[in-house]
Structure formats: structure tokens, C-alpha cells
Amino acid sequence: MSAKSRKTFGFISHPRIQFKYAILNSLFVSGVILLSNLLVVYRLRNYADSQSDIEMDTALLYNITDFTMQMGFLTFLVSFFITFISTIVITHRFVGPFISINRYVDSIINGKFDEGLNLRTSDEMHEIAGKLKTLGDRLKPTK
């Protein structure tokens, strides 16, 4: 991926991996929230149907369950969006160093030994990057 297209994508450094995990994570988190809300609605409606002997305001109870369902779907959408964005940011932190290392190894394969390997100093891959730089210096042909 060229530097220009990387600037265009921003945090999307490897779309196939990042979007796959973002969608799976978002569906899981949002699905759990939606199912818990639907369970509340089911229990409220079940309670309303079982209380036929006692005078109940079923209209009020059904209004409460409808409101709970609406809030459940709204919560599903909001949690899906928040989880999707946060997963993209988190996967960028994981995928970014691998892309930089891959680009550096490709430059060594193509005989360009002067290209740098830029990683954040807080990355866990920093030790491997140092060893790859040493390897590149040793493979560099001497004149």
C-alpha cells in the first residue's frame, strides 16, 4: 500500500482483517445487549399474560414492553457503532506494525537496504524491528 493510499485510509491499514474483526466484535457485543433487552420484554409479556385473574392495565404493560423494545434496538445500533469504531482503532494498533515490518522485508528482498523501519516506540514489535534492522545491515553489500 503506497503512502498516499495509506493516508487516505487513515486507521484502515489492512481492511480485510480490520473490518472482519470489527463486524464480528460489534455483532457479538450488540447482540448480547439486544438479547438481554428482548429477554426483559419476553418476561414482561409473559407476566402480563399469566395475570388474567387480577385486574391489570395491560395497555400500560404493553406500552412499557414496546418502549423497552425500541430502547433495545436503539441500544443495539449505538453499541454496534461504538464497538465497530473502537475495534478498528484497536486492530490498527495490532496490524500496523506487521504492515511496516512486511514493507521493510519487501524492501530488503528488492535490494533496497537503505529504507527505514518506522515503528512506534511503545509497540511490542519494537524488539523484532531492531533485529530486522540488524539483519538488513548485515545483508547489505559492502563496497
Number of strands: 0
How many H/I helices?
Answer: 4
Largest sheet: none
Low-confidence stretches: none
Q: Whole-number average pLDDT?
A: 77
- Radius of gyration computed on alpha carbons: 26 Å
State the share of residues found in helices, binned by percent: over 70%
* Content of β-strand: under 5%
Output the structural class: mainly alpha
Instruction: Please write the string of helix (H) and strand (E) elements.
Output: HHHH
Write down the overall geometry: rod-shaped
Kindly report how far apart the N and C termini lie: 32 Å
Task: Return the domain count.
Answer: 1
Would you kindly provide a written description of the structure presented here, covering whatever features stand out?
With 143 residues, this protein is mainly alpha-helical. It has one domain (14-139). The chain is 76% helix and 0% strand. It has helices at 3-9, 15-50, 58-109, 126-139. Helix 2 packs antiparallel against helix 3 and helix 3 packs parallel to helix 4. It is rod-shaped.
Question: Any chance you could write out the topology, listing elements then pairs?
Answer:
Elements: H1 3-9, H2 15-50, H3 58-109, H4 126-139
Entry summary:
It is built from four helices and no strands.
Features:
76% helix; mainly alpha; rod-shaped; 0% strand; 143 residues
